[in-house]
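Tutorial, part two.
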Amino acid sequence: MSSTTVTAVPVTVTARDPFFDNAKYLAIVLVVCGHLIEDQRDAPIAHALYFYVYVFHMPLFIVLTGYLSRKFTFGAGKARKLISTLAVPYLVFELAYSLPRLVLYGKFELSLLEPYYLTWFLMSLFLWRLSTPVWQQLRWPLLVALVLSLVTGMSKLPDELSMNRTFGLLPFYVLGLMLKPEHFQWLRRPYMRLAGACVLGLGLATALLVHEAVPTEWIRWRLSNTEIGVDDLTGTAIRLGLLVAGAVLVAAFLAVTPARRTWFSGLGATTMYAYLLHGFVVKVAERFDLGLPLSIGLGLVAATVLCTPPVRKLFHWAVEPRMSWVFTPLRKPS
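Running the prediction step on this input gives:
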């Protein structure tokens, strides 16, 4: 009688790294709170906090997005995901954020190529992701992205496609593409946590000192040097300083981000819901004088609630629409 030996093949299950979900949740909290305290900027403390948060909150999101986009290709599956997760939500929310202007002010303006309000990020991310394979072929991608960012700041680019922001913030996306897992492991070391906390504290102290001297438009990345009122040499120096400051604060923030699974790790996997929906909370809050503490508290609550399963279930059709009915069936490789 012959015996048959059966060899078990181990099944590898790739789990989500809670570190990145934690970072994304904390980043969206900063984004929502930053938008909610915008109307409180008459108070010096609120203006300093606004300036501080805006130096690195979107760079943080963009670096994480770049890192998680490293495997993007021009394949059919990726292209379909690009359309269903960015292009279609962009159209939905561009329309959704235009409708309140019709109700409140009696005018309706819709320009699909000129992003309104926070939809600029979807437009820019769409373009950044399309360019991903290009950056991965260059020998010095970060240097090229940095030069493009500084050079385009010298020109008034069209509002279409959010060109100033797309090019201005491009180095953060390319930085994310260039990062490797070992870079994040290095940031997780105990001494880096202490260094990160010190850098964040120093950054806040600096913001308290300089926020009144720096025009707000610098941290919004949407205007050229001339439009802000400086010559190109000065503007380039300021832009370079903001890029460096943003990168340093992003690294510091990631250094203090918990790597273990937390109560908000699951929420960090769905931050696009909070990003796209929180604008409606902001528009309502603008009609009330909440004050700084209440605005921050509302931001914490809104960022959290908008990432929860009930909200995701209710707005899945807008943020992550199922578009399989639009596409032809994928062909299996022969």
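The chain has one domain: 32-319. In part three we will examine how such features are distributed along the chain.
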